[in-house]
Amino acid sequence: MASWGVLIASWAYILGLLVTGITDFRVLGGISIAGGAVFAIGVMAGILVPRYWRMGPTRRQWWIAGLVAWVAASYCLWTTPQPAKNDVSRFVSQQEQWVLGKVLEMPRTTRHNKGQFLFEAQSVSKRTDWDSVSRETVSGKLYVTAHLKPSKLLYPGQTVELKGFVEKVEAPKKGEKAGFAGYLAKRGCFAKFRTRWVEFLPEQKPPRWAIWKLRQRIVAAQGLWLGEPAGDLLSAMTLGRKAVDLPFDVKDSFVNAGLAHTLAASGFHVSLILGLVLGLLRAQLPRTKAIAGMLTLLMYVGLTGLQPSVVRASVMGLGALIGLASEQKVKPLGCLLVAANLILLWNPQWIWDAGFELSAVATLGLIVTVPWLMARMEWLPTNIATLLAVPIAAYFWTIPLQLYYFERVPPYGVLLNSIATPLVVITSIGGFISAAASIVWPMLGGAIALLFYYPIHLLIWLVERFNQLPGSSFEFEGFGPLAVVVSYSVYATICIWIWSKEQKSKRVF
Question: Per the confidence metrics, is the pTM higher than 0.85?
Answer without folding.
Answer: yes
